[in-house]
Every structure is written in C-alpha cells, then in structure tokens.
C-alpha cells in the first residue's frame, strides 16, 4: 500500500537516474562513518513513495557516488572561498542536495533542469530562498544564460549530465559557455568509453532489472584533447576522487588514481574535470 504521507514519484529514462543518485548518497549518509554528510538526501528518500531498494538494490554504490559528490563539493567550496557571494549554476541538478552541503550564507544558486524534474524539485523544495532559484529548461538551450549574474564570480556545474548528450552537443554547450562567460570555470564529469558502450548496447543492467539509459558522450585522452581545442578554453584539468573509507576506497583506489592510464579507464571512479574559460581581452 502506498504511504499517503509520502510524495509519489513517476519517472523513467534519464530523469529516473536522479533517484538512483539520490538513493546512493542517502545510503552512504546513513552510515555513522559516512564519507559524505547529507541529511537532506536521507530526508528526501524517506519522504518519497518510490521502491528504491526494489529498483536499485542495496545501495552498494553509496560510497562511490558519495565520493564523486564530495569532489564536486570541494570545487564549489574552493570557488566560494575565492569568490564570496559568487554564483553557482547547477545544470541538470536533479535531486542533488549540494546547496545544503556547501551553502556559506552568501552563494547565489541557480538550478537549470528539465520541466518534469523542476516540478518534482518544486514539490519537494517548495520554499526557494532568494539566493536559490530554479529554472525549467534544457541546459542545451540558451534561455537560462540570460539569468546568469557573473559579476561576483561564476562556477558552472554539470554533475551526472553531459554523458547523456551527444558529443557535438557537449562541445557546443561548453564552447558556448566559454564564449558567454569569459573567466568562469565549469566542473563536470563523464564516463569512460567502455561504460558508454555498455549503456548504448543495453548491457548496463543491475540484478533488479534497472537499466541505465544510453550515455553517448565518453571521455578519454582524445576527447580531453578535443575539449582543450574548443574556442576560449584556457585549461582542462583532471580532478581525482577524494580518499574514502576501507581498503578499496581508502588505499587501493587512491594509489591507482595517481596513474593516468588507470584513471582514464574509469574503474576507480568516473572522470571528473574542470574547464577554465579564457578571460576577455
């Protein structure tokens, strides 16, 4: 029987992935030794009428997902230290709860996401404060750029988004942002080629039958070279996942992540990068 006190969720395809990400973070956050403190994620999972465990299993990727989120948090905190009162634009944010983890009381936060996701976010987060706004639309459209206020510094974030686009769409988005927002920074992630191929062939399925949607954009050394060659890109730099808990995430993966060829394979975590846009002349 559905719990009438819980909010019902009906999503599929790419939008459903936001529930997978949320569930993994909340699973990790429930641990007393969690690598990521995320009480808002736990609160959301508990408030939703959705069969998380039946759909996604036991949350065995909790630490893996939390370390990815933590790396993005570190970049946002670094930006806010250097640019007090700056703006963070979170593209395709889904049900990410990063604002509550990194809010310094001054950041101006803009979420851009698909209409069905915005409807869900608005239902779950009904009281947007003046510093946190939400816009419905695709990151690939230009409308959201008119709402950006970069005067005090700008960080663009695309966590768990770009891999669902075609390569030319990713290039167009990043190059367009670099042209419109000189001097800004963008932090984003992708998937390695083997991971992309498995999703495109429909072979990325868990024991419960959940199948990850196609992810056409893959990142390897050649793709990073193409990103560096885009107009107005000053730098593209790899970001290593932080050290985690236990022998695997706390010892083995950190050592392997020092080796670029291993890091490129994406077995220790999805590729995370930051792109710095050239300043205007």
UniProtKB/TrEMBL annotation:
Highest rank taxon of the organism: Bacteria
Q: Which GO terms describe its biological process?
A: methylation
**Which keywords has UniProt assigned to this entry?**
Methyltransferase, Transferase
What terms describe the molecular function in GO for this protein? methyltransferase activity
Protein name stated in the entry: Class I SAM-dependent methyltransferase
Question: To which species is this protein native?
Answer: Actinoallomurus vinaceus
């Amino acid at each position: 029987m559905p719990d009438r006190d819980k909010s019902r969720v009906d999503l599929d395809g790419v939008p459903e992935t936001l529930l997978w990400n949320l569930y993994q973070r909340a699973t990790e956050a429930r641990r007393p030794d969690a690598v990521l403190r995320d009480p808002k994620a736990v609160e959301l999972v508990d408030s939703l009428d959705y069969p998380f465990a039946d759909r996604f299993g036991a949350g065995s990727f909790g630490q893996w997902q939390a370390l990815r989120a933590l790396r993005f948090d570190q970049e946002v905190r670094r930006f806010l230290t250097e640019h007090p009162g700056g703006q963070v634009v979170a593209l395709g944010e889904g049900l990410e709860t990063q604002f509550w983890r990194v809010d310094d009381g001054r950041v101006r936060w803009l979420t851009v996401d698909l209409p069905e996701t915005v409807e869900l976010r608005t239902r779950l987060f009904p009281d947007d404060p003046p510093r946190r706004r939400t816009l419905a639309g695709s990151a690939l459209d230009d409308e959201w750029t008119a709402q950006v206020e970069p005067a005090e510094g700008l960080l663009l974030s695309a966590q768990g988004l770009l891999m669902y686009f075609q390569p030319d769409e990713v290039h167009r988005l990043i190059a367009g942002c670099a042209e419109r927002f000189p001097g800004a920074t963008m932090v984003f992630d992708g998937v390695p080629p083997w991971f992309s191929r498995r999703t495109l062939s429909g072979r990325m399925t868990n024991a419960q039958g959940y199948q990850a949607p196609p992810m056409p954009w893959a990142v390897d050394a050649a793709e990073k070279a193409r990103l560096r060659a885009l107009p107005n890109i000053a730098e593209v730099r790899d970001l290593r996942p932080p050290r985690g808990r236990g022998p695997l995430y706390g010892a083995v993966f950190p050592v392997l992540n020092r080796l670029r060829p291993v890091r490129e394979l994406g077995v220790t975590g999805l590729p995370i990068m930051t792109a710095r846009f050239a300043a205007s002349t």
